[in-house]
Every structure is written in C-alpha cells, then in structure tokens.
Amino acid sequence: MCIRDRYMGLSAFAALSIGLIFVGRCHEDAANSILQTLSERPENQLNMTISRYFSVGLSLLFLGQQDNCEAIIDALGIINHPIKKYTETLVEACAFVGSGNVLKVQKMLHQCLGNPEEKDAGYQAVAVLGVGLIAASEDVGSEMSLRMINHLLQYGNVTVKRAIPLALALLNLSNPKVTIMDHLSKLSHDSDAETSQRAIIALGLIGAGTNNSRLAGIFRQLAVYYAKDPSNLYLVRISQGLLHMGKGLVTIQPYYYDRFLYSKVSMAGIIIFANSCLDMTNIIIEKYHYMLFYLCLSIYPKSLFLLDESLKPLPVSVRVGQAVDVVGQAGQPKRITGFQTHNAPVLISYGERAEIATEEMIPITDVVLENFVIIKKNPNYSEDQDKPRKKTSL
Predict the structure, then answer these.
(1) Cis peptide leading into residue 345 (ω within 30°)
(2) CA distance 46 to 139
C-alpha cells in the first residue's frame, strides 16, 4: 500500500486520498491504517511539513460526525510528538464543522492560550481555523466569532495571529463583506511575511467567483506594492484568478439549502487548502504548489435552473433578491427584498434567495430554489391570480 511507503510524500498524500475517499464516513479500517502509519513514523519524518496531511486525512474521515470522533482522539494518545495535539484539534474541528457548537468554539479559543515554542504551536493555528469552521454556518455565530478573532489578533501569539486571515476567510467564503475586506487589506501589508501572504490568499477566498470591483482594485494595488517580491506577487496573481473564477458564474461556498446543509466534498477541499496555507512558504510557494488544485473540489455553479418534468429547461420569470429571515413570523411574509426579475437560468449570490414570479408554475416539491429545480403547472392556477388587484374606495 502507498500509505506504508517509506517515501514520506507518497505516504502523506495516500493518507489524504483515503480521507477524501471515505470523507465523513468514520471508516474504521481507513482510520486505523492512517493512525498506525502515523505512530510508526520516526520523529525526523513527523517534523516534515508534509506530515500534516496524515492529520488532515484522518480528520476528513470524521467530517461532521460530532461525538463519533472521541474514540480516535483517545487512540491518538499512543503518539509522542507535537503532531498528536495538531491531529486531535483538527479531528475535533472537522467533526463539529458547521454545527455552531458554542462549547467547541470555546474549547478552540482555549487552545489559543499560552505561548508554546513555535515548532510545537501548530495546533494553535488549527484551533483558530476550527473557530471559523464550526461557526460559519449561521450569521449570529459568525458575528460573535468575529469579535473573538479580533481579541486574538490583539492578544494572541505569533502563530495565532498568522492563522487569523484564514479563519476570516472560512467565515466569509465567496462573500466579500466590506469590513472583512478592509481588515484583510490591512493584514496584507503586515510586516510579518507569513501573515501578509495568508491575508492575500484570504482576500482571494472571500471574493472567489464574485468579480468584486473593490477587491479587484485592492489586488491591483497589492501587485504594485509587491512588484519586487516574487513570492507575494505570485500569491496576488492566484488571488486575482480566484476573484474572476469562472467569470463570476461559480462559487466555493460549501453551504446550500439556505445554509442548512453543506457538501462534504466541497468542505474537504476547503479544509485541505486551509491547512496547506498554514505553511505558505514550503507548500504553496515552493515544493507543493499543486495543493492549490484541491480547491477545485469546492468550485460549483451558483445558478438556478428551472426544468420541466422531462428535464428540459424552462425560461420562467424568477425574482432574485436579498434573503429575509421570516422564521417565527405569522402569515406569509415576504421572504426576499430589493428583488429584480429575470428569466431562468439566473445567478444567486451569497445571501440571496429566488422565488418564481408567477403563480402558473410551482416546484414539484417544497424546496429552496437553487441549483436544478423541477417545476410543473399549478393545477389550481387561474389567470386572475397574476393580475394586479384594482384599488377600491369605500
């Protein structure tokens, strides 16, 4: 088996592939094979930066499985190396990804305390990423995490500060908020090279597939600012590519169905890429630059296609506008505001929602309108329903 190979690179990527094949399945044999290989490796090999992919592969097996990860965390006690703490933290972060679990966010923040030696502090960077992964599924959790991350930026050690741009990106994938953009723009001019490099990539992640004009301007300024620094300029060009990805027709946001569900494969791509960025110099800039392509797992069209029952596209009028939270409101409140009317297919960006503009057609099941939706004629439709009502005076 490749995972037993004495060449560390081949073995680490085999572990990562196993994690992707069995993502989120708690596969016992796969977990045992990665754990056994990790325990048998000599210390000098575990000190290599590529050894982190054993941890990532193992963590992907427990993606979204919550308390099912406890047995493997206990089993990691057999390893006597700092990678043990890194793996434990990453497994727990992946197990509770998108859950919004407040206790786990607090535990991740607690991991960020203390000042271990820099070579042993990798788990703190993973804990910062864990905050972003766990809290990204809903707006209130994201806002509260943002406050915590600001505190970490002020009081955390160097390892924690360097991971903060990536945590901000995980909270706002393909969602270029002005406040986050300004925050990362400041960090991209930081005197610490690692922090500035991660901030540049984070800017690319928050704007991925959006064609945001403000971000495009920031990248043009960064290209001039880092014109004589080939490493940073290389990252600026990558981020510019992410910004204009698919000419604005795709996204890397793993959540769908009004952020109620997430794609495990898409989330796996984000997690692999984020962990690769924790050693920007040795992985992305130098030897393993092809780790960028794992982000392709997360690329997906952000369009709405309406199909008839024979799966032929229908050019039906659709209203697209900002989503409004109507949970708990009585009656039938409007679920979108500031809408525009287009014919399907239409683009639905982050935070937007679609509605069919006519009563003549209805979905065959009550679903959120995104991706591919099959619609049919409304059996209770009458032409009077679509006519505007005349005002009557008393």
Answers:
(1) yes
(2) 38
